[in-house]
Amino acid sequence: LAHITGGGLPENTPRILPKRCRAVFQLGSWAVPPIFREIQSRGRVPDTEMWRTFNMGVGMIAVVRPSAVDAARRALPEAVPIGEIVSGRPGVEFVSAQAAGRAA
Hints:
The protein is an alpha+beta fold. Strands 4-2-5 form a three-stranded mixed beta sheet. The chain has a two-stranded antiparallel ribbon with strand order 1-3. The two termini are about 25 Å apart. It is globular and about 45 Å long. Helices cover about 35% and strands about 20% of the residues.
């Protein structure tokens, strides 16, 4: 589990991952609260800063094995799958739904 605080998904997620793994978040897999788009628009805030500062509506993540997804969803019915963990250089990556579909 990771509580997504200051630093957002890019800085908090790698702390809970095994070495040589990265998180790939699928943009559009959760509803971004409208207030964040309003802040971004009025303040002319770049995407990277919105993700780092406001998390775009994600407050907690749980990383579970693929075989445990169904059990996790039964235990936390409000949970939404938002990405996957893949091997590679440690870090976080954001992909569009179209890019995620091509990678599958």
